[in-house]
Specification:
The protein has one domain: Gcn5-related N-acetyltransferase (GNAT) (Aminopeptidase, 3-Layer(aba) Sandwich), CATH 3.40.630. It has a seven-stranded mixed sheet, sandwiched between helices. About 5% of the residues have low confidence. The protein has about 190 residues and is of the alpha+beta class. The termini are far apart. Bound molecules: coenzyme A (COA). The site of coenzyme A has 20 residues, from strand 4, helix 3 and helix 4.
Length: about 190
């Protein structure tokens, strides 16, 4: 898909690893506080490559990326999870992240997601604004969630009509809900 500004939005596929993985890591490591190893990227991309979307300019430079996953959450609802999102500094504020996240959400919905979750640092105004505009609700504050000691908000988008009420009781009793959704090697 190409937009009015000539940007292409591309769904990742494992056949594109040699073309895109290095650029994905570079873009994300510039902006996110967590230092993820190559195994973390492969954990997501091998299993849920179709939930990763890239924004590329006309020369194939990578301007934005979203990486996510979708799986049953503790034997309960089908939960999508937005793991990483970044847009190159010079290209922010043009709706690139919004479009990438929408594309990931659309595939999750097609694949029968009940809810979609993510965490963001409590100081990340741009990310919080973006997710709230897409309908995500703040579900809880996670104290000192990140390795750098910063706290996070968890955001959840309830995709199905009855998901919100049926999940309320579940969350309250959900003992280790605050664990990061990354593999232990992260
Ligand atoms: C968060 C991020 C992905 C947003 O990318 P983007 O392409 O600029 O986002 P969009 O243009 O789609 O829109 C984001 C919304 O946030 C707003 N916004 C952008 N920068 C902002 C800022 N510094 N303060 C407040 N709002 C801001 C935009 O105005 C827009 O809202 P609006 O359309 O209602 O005006 C980008 O800032 C980024 O890469 N940050 C570093 C990595 C990061 O924090 N990732 C998120 C981790 S959860």
């Amino acid at each position: 898909m190409t937009d009015r500004e000539g940007l292409q939005y591309v769904q990742y596929h494992s056949s594109k690893e040699s073309t895109y993985l290095a650029a994905i890591r570079q873009l994300i490591s510039n902006d996110l506080s967590e230092p993820y190893s190559i195994y973390v990227y492969r954990y997501f991309l091998y299993q849920w490559g179709d939930l990763c979307f890239l924004a590329l300019d006309e020369h194939d430079n990578m301007l934005g990326v979203v990486i996510s996953k979708l799986e049953p959450h503790r034997g309960g609802p089908m939960r999508g999870y937005i793991a990483m999102l970044a847009v190159k500094k010079e290209h922010r504020g043009k709706g690139i992240a919004t479009k990438l996240v929408r594309m990931a959400i659309d595939v999750m919905i097609e694949r029968d997601a009940d809810e979609i979750a993510l965490e963001t640092e409590v100081t990340n105004t741009a990310a919080m604004k973006l997710y709230e505009r897409l309908g995500f609700l703040r579900s809880k504050r996670l104290h000192r969630y990140y390795l750098n000691g910063n706290s996070a908000f968890r955001f959840v988008l309830f995709v199905k009509e009855n998901a919100f009420t049926s999940r309320l009781g579940y969350d309250e009793n959900d003992g280790d809900e605050d664990q990061p959704e990354l593999p232990p090697s992260a």
